[in-house]
């Protein structure tokens, strides 16, 4: 697993990326700098990266970091999204899980749309 950090003015979000093809493609392109958007308890942002989407799923969990091929975005799920009917996050369409964070939802909720985010290797 590769350690990465999502840096924001609200604090650093530490994560570990998996060893799958999609995660490796994203790691190759670090650092990434973007502006955050939110969708319920999900942070997402454009990466400008076209990465493999093999293994796409709608089944994600709190703490999952996923690549959303449709938007070329990274997503951090930390609670229910606009598509959820319960407490579990549901993506807008299929995503590829590329990592995991144990960051507290309280920290992630402080990161608002328009916030600058930088992703680097730890």
UniProtKB/TrEMBL annotation:
Protein name per Swiss-Prot or TrEMBL: Cyclophilin TM1367-like domain-containing protein
Domain Cyclophilin TM1367-like: 4-119
Domain of life: Bacteria
Family annotation (InterPro entries): Cyclophilin-like_dom_sf, Cyclophilin_TM1367
Naturally occurring in which organism (per UniProt): Candidatus Desantisbacteria bacterium CG_4_10_14_0_8_um_filter_48_22
